[in-house]
Amino acid sequence: MKNDLVNDAFRNAGCGQNINVAITLKGETYTWGKPGFSKYANDFMSTYSRPFTLCPNIKVNFVNVGMDHCMLVDERSHIWSYGYNSKGNLGTGDTRDFLKPIKL
């Protein structure tokens, strides 16, 4: 978890009803918001209110945030999605939720 993002420069950020995502110029992705999205973080109860690294092995160029889901575009123009998927809004062909980004 990163406690202080003051010294980072950002390329893109998105705010949904329950989740926030910010992308640095280096392509690092940070998220915070609704606790359900933090289930895979190290400290479940405290992580959701502070930014933590979402996908350290993926360099992200763009994010679009919905109410409870996100779409990411990586440096190779691949699309990744994650979040709640009750209406199939993640584009995975089903309605399973994904709390970590999945490549489409």
In words, what does this structure look like?
The chain is 4% helix and 40% strand. It has one domain (10-103). The strands form 2 sheets. Strands 1-2-3-4 form a 4-stranded antiparallel sheet, with no helix packed on it. Strand 6 (69-74) and strand 7 form a beta hairpin. The longest helix is centred in the middle third of the chain and has 4 residues, at 44-47. The chain is globular, with a radius of gyration of 13 Å. The chain has one helix at residues 44-47, and strands spanning 10-15, 19-24, 29-33, 52-53, 60-65, 69-74, 79-83, 98-103. By secondary structure, it is mainly beta. The chain is built from 1 helix and 8 strands.
For the record, give the distance between the C-alpha atoms at the N and C termini, rounded to a whole number. Answer: 26 Å
- Poorly predicted ranges: 38-46
Instruction: Output the radius of gyration.
Output: 13 Å
Helix-residue proportion = under 10%
Individual helix count: 1
Q: What number is the mean pLDDT? A: 83
Q: Strand percentage, roughly? A: 35-45%
Number of strands: 8
Approximate shape: globular
Q: Biggest sheet: strands side by side, in what order? A: 1-2-3-4
What class do helices, strands and sheet pairing give? mainly beta
- What is the makeup of the main sheet? 4 strands, antiparallel
Q: What is the count of distinct domains?
A: 1
**Secondary-structure element string:** EEEHEEEEE
What's a concise summary of this model?
This protein is mainly β.
